[in-house]
Amino acid sequence: MARRAASAGAPKVAAPRLAPVRPGALRDDPDPGFRSGERYDGVRYSRASADGLDLGGAIFAECEFAGVSFHETQLRGAAFRDCILTEAYAPVLTAARASLRDVEIGNPRWGSAELYESGWQSVRIDGGKLDYLNLRGSKLTDVQISDCIIGELDLGSCTATRVALKNCTIGTLDFSGARLKDFDLRGTDFRTVSGLGSLAGLVIDDYQLTLLAPLLATHLGIVVA
Predict the structure, then answer these.
(1) d(Cα 17, Cα 191) in Å, to the nearest integer?
(2) Mind listing the pLDDT tens digit for each residue in 105-156?
(3) What pTM does this model have?
(4) Are strands 159-166 and 189-194 parallel, antiparallel or unpaired?
């Protein structure tokens, strides 16, 4: 079904404010000795493995990760600042209460990604496939996810401001208890949405409205005969 362009009188939606990520001169570390609670500045990691390590509370500033595996890595409370991650791999990603600021993530391959109660500011995800992304209770500000396949996206109880999901394919979206402002879902395909009582601040297109209409009718107890 063709989507209609927004009318000239449509309210203006604030787009995510994304700062360009430009790490300075990086040194290569072919055999990183990752440790929890440590700080890492200006390092490039290529095809390295952090599988199964405890990196809770670690801080990465102006770092680049290319093809790094984070399978079952403990990243609880870790911080990423001015970082680029490409082709990050993690069948199980554990990063609750992590902090991401000025971060670009390209073509991630994540299975179950537990990032609940995390803080994201100026974060971009381009491409990739995420089976389950748990952002429940997180604070998201200036976030854009584009051209990504997501099986289930849990945004329950999150606070999201200037967030855009562009050209994504999502199976299940959960907005239960979320607080949204300028959350732009236009152009993204989804199968089902829960948390229909928390959609204030969501921006959708005409076609998406037809998908939501039956769900909203059921939620409100409307009988269409």
Answers:
(1) 28
(2) 999 999 999 999 999 999 999 999 999 999 999 999 999 999 999 999 999 9
(3) 0.89
(4) unpaired
Total residue count of the chain as it appears in this document: 225
Quote the CA–CA distance of 92 and 115 in Å, as a whole number.
Answer: 11
What are the start-end ranges of the H helices in the chain?
206-220
pLDDT tens string 67-97: 999 999 999 999 999 999 999 999 999 999 9
Burial call 160-169: b when 16+ CB within 10 Å, e when fewer: bbbbbbbebe
Query: What does the buried/exposed string (b/e) look like for 200-214 if buried means 16 or more CB atoms within 10 Å of the residue's CB?
Result: eebbbbeebeeebee
Q: Beta 27-28 vs 119-126: how paired, if at all?
A: unpaired
DSSP one-letter code for 25:
S
Express each pLDDT in 151-165 by its tens digit: 999 999 999 999 999
Which residues, at least 6 apart from 55, have a Cβ–Cβ distance to it below 8 Å?
34, 35, 36, 73, 74, 75, 78
- 218 backbone dihedrals φ, ψ, rounded to 5°: -65, -40
Nearest Cα to Cα of residue 131 among 91, 94, 178, 99 = 91
Which residues have CB under 8 Å from 178's CB, separation 6+? 155, 156, 157, 158, 159, 160, 195, 198
Distance of CA 210 to CAs 9, 14, 58, 124, 150, Å? 21, 24, 45, 28, 21
CA–CA separation, 198 and 201 (whole Å): 9
